[in-house]
Amino acid sequence: MSTAELTDQVVEFLSTGTRTGKIAWVSKDGRALVTPIWFIVEDGALVFNTGLDTSKGRALQRDSRATIVVDDEKPPFSFVQVQGTVAFDDDPTDLLRTASAIAERYMGPDLAEQYGKRNAVPGEALVRLTPTKVIAAFDIAD
After folding, report:
1. What are phi and psi of 62, to 5 degrees?
2. pLDDT for 25-72, tens place per residue?
3. Cα 88 to Cα 141: distance, rounded to the nearest angstrom
4. What pTM was computed for the model?
5. RNA-binding: present as a keyword of the record (predicted)?
6. How far apart are CA 77 and CA 95, in angstroms?
7. Is the separation of the CB atoms in 48 and 93 below 8 Å?
8. Could you give the C-alpha distances from 68 to 84, 86, 93, 95, 121, in angstroms and in order?
């Protein structure tokens, strides 16, 4: 399945449990780099936080194109690949809100505020990846 939007089935898959995203970008010297991220789906975009001065942060500010892959490593295996462009938001209120929501997903409600505050500090930014292409394959081994 290929589309430019996040379907209900894709959003459900992306939002289930604590699956991490693997974000890929191109470094300044042309190398392809990948790292895991925590994220949430919000208003048709994948939302995550990153440091503005990290390799990923600098690269995405220079070239807004990125791809995030999320997979289920258990049979019957599934994955979603979201290609798109990113936009940065360093508004402290938005950053704290999303950092706390992301923390709640991955660390649970008891630690959401603590991790949200830890990840919503100066130098951090909220990043929204808006899809330009979505590829999904569910239950591949069936």
Report:
1. -75, -40
2. 999 999 999 999 999 999 999 999 999 999 999 999 999 999 999 999
3. 38
4. 0.94
5. no
6. 33
7. no
8. 9, 11, 25, 20, 24
Q: How far is CA 124 from CA 20, 52, 57, 104, in A?
A: 19, 6, 9, 18
CATH architecture observed for domain 2-137? Roll (2.30)
| List of E strands, the chain | 2-3, 21-26, 32-37, 40-42, 45-51, 65-72, 78-89, 124-137
Sign of CA dihedral 111, 113, 114, 118: positive
Question: Hey, how many other C-beta atoms are within 10 angstroms of the C-beta on 106?
Answer: 16
> How many beta carbons lie within 10 A of that of residue 94, not counting itself?
15
Q: Domain-by-domain residue ranges, the chain?
A: 2-137
Q: Which of 52, 50, 2 is nearest to 23 (CA)?
A: 50
With contact defined as beta carbons under 8 Å apart, do 18 and 105 qualify? Answer: yes
Residue located via tokens 């997979």? 71
Query: CA nearest 83: which of 4, 1, 15?
Result: 4
